[in-house]
């Protein structure tokens, strides 16, 4: 069982992003316009390349034992990335049975809850 079904995933993602941005506003956090990017032709995340033509797998990196996440800041092109926070967590026996895609999605949700919401 995955936390969100395919029919509601867009709406759930929008709700989650609205919540994240609301917390940014509450904490008076600002995003520098030069560091924001929109209108990409493609985006690569979690071993998948997402384009308007569809999704293509480039590699699968989901662990069968644990979850990990890190929040970095800096200039990737200049190789000046600095670790802000990192998190590690162990999968439950049930979560170990998830498919690689389900474990990757679980990792994203877990990272957002842990790093952004502090849960």
TrEMBL record:
Keywords: Endonuclease, Hydrolase, Nuclease, Nucleotidyltransferase, RNA-directed DNA polymerase, Transferase. GO terms for biological process: DNA biosynthetic process. Residues 60-114 form the Reverse transcriptase RNase H-like domain. It comes from the Eukaryota. Coiled coil: none annotated. The keyword Transferase applies. This is Reverse transcriptase RNase H-like domain-containing protein.
């Amino acid at each position: 069982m995955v936390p969100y079904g395919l029919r509601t995933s867009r709406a759930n993602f929008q709700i989650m992003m609205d919540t994240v941005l609301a917390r940014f506003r509450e904490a008076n956090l600002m995003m520098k316009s030069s560091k924001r990017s929109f209108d990409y032709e493609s985006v690569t995340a979690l071993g998948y390349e997402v384009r308007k033509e569809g999704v293509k797998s480039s590699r699968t990196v989901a662990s069968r034992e644990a979850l990990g996440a890190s929040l970095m800041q800096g200039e990737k092109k200049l190789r000046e990335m600095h670790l802000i926070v990192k998190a590690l967590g162990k999968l439950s026996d049930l979560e170990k049975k998830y498919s690689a895609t389900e474990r990757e999605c679980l990792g994203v949700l877990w990272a957002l809850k842990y790093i952004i919401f502090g849960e």
